[in-house]
Write a structure and sequence with these properties.
This protein is α/β, with parallel strands linked by helices and 331 residues long. The protein has 13 helices and six strands. Strands 3-2-1-4-5-6 form a six-stranded parallel sheet, with helices on both faces. Helix 4 runs parallel beside helix 13 and helix 7 crosses helix 10. The protein is globular and about 80 Å long.
């Protein structure tokens, strides 16, 4: 079998073309500005380069504001770290401003929300308590969710509403900072989606898993109705927005199933926008939130720490909303 003899290629034979004929992904007009010390937040935001995460942030802010101007929902689906890193007040503020119109969480988020409302502290050091069996065995938290189980049996309410009602009835000292209470007071959906056996409170002797499962399923049916409303209210109008914030598996799966239910029942979700905000890129948020359920270009991803991203997102939303209000008054 013959073997070709290789030799260095003659680079003088390469075909070149003018840079004026080339398409460019980067231009000076999209580069960062340099705001002066003391610049307004709006000026700082405008100074960000028009690339990647900064572009996705601006587009997400625009989608949220457009959705609320059109009367469409904005849903925040959140993992537990949103509460654990102190961003609960950011979300509560957006709820009170009617920028967020529904909240979705899994069981761990609800537990941290409850503990912050009752005790002003949450999140144990697992490494210190798993070795001797104390992990997840806090008496007050277990007792609280046992009482929620009883409340569900009496009232046949969803899990999110039941937890909020229990906090309010007990006069939780920091209820004003609770996501679930904020939703209850604003009369907007707050749904909690649990996987039995994954949350510490599932070991509570006073908790009936059948009640918990039924209430969580009721919440799933409720969020299916919310998702069905994420389409445009009128032809060519803005659709609603689904934000997945820090849930790598459970809530992206809930969203995908809710989208399937909504479309199966006739909802047109072509104008819906989504964004995944998290510290890492994960498979399910990418495919179940950013790509599969939405039209091309309507799904976005912003990677970064919640404690930085969420305050930035909030400020950008309220600044843009206020700017539009000023423009409307001046017309």
């Amino acid at each position: 079998m013959g073997r070709r003899a290789y030799k260095p290629v003659d680079l003088s034979r390469l075909r070149t073309y003018s840079i004026r004929e080339r398409a460019h992904k980067a231009q000076t007009g999209r580069s960062a500005g340099v705001p002066e010390p003391g610049a307004s937040f709006g000026a700082w935001l405008d100074s960000l380069p028009d690339f990647l995460g900064a572009t996705a942030l601006r587009e997400t802010v625009g989608a949220i504001v457009a959705a609320r101007r059109a009367g469409r929902p904005v849903v925040a689906a959140m993992g537990a770290h949103v509460v654990k890193v102190g961003c609960g007040p950011v979300i509560v503020d957006l709820i009170e401003r009617e920028m967020i119109t529904a909240v979705v969480m899994h069981g761990a988020t609800a537990i941290h929300d409850v503990e912050m409302a009752l005790f002003g502290a949450t999140s144990e050091e697992v490494q210190d308590t798993i070795g001797d069996g104390r992990f997840g065995m806090v008496e007050q938290t277990l007792s609280f969710f046992g009482a929620v189980s009883d409340r569900i049996a009496r009232g046949r309410t969803g899990l999110g509403a039941s937890i909020a009602d229990e906090l309010l009835e007990r006069g939780a000292p920091r209820a004003a900072g609770s996501l679930l209470v904020a939703c209850r007071r604003a009369d907007i959906p707050a749904t909690v989606h649990v996987a039995i056996g994954t949350d510490t409170v599932h070991v509570a002797a006073g908790l009936d898993p059948a009640h918990l499962g039924a209430a969580s399923h009721r919440d799933f049916r409720l969020i299916c109705d919310v998702v069905s409303d994420l389409g445009a209210g009128e032809p060519g109008g803005a659709g609603g927005v689904w934000l997945n914030i820090g849930s790598a598996v459970l809530l992206p799966e809930v969203f995908l199933k809710a989208v399937a239910v909504a479309r199966n029942l006739g909802a047109d979700l072509d104008a819906m926008a989504t964004c995944n905000l998290d510290m890492l890129r994960h498979y399910r948020p990418t495919v179940n939130v950013v790509t599969r359920p939405v039209a091309r270009g309507m799904g976005r991803q912003i990677i970064g720490h919640h404690e930085i991203l969420l305050p930035l997102l909030r400020q950008a939303v309220i600044e843009q909303w206020a700017s539009l209000a000023v423009d409307a008054r001046q017309q």
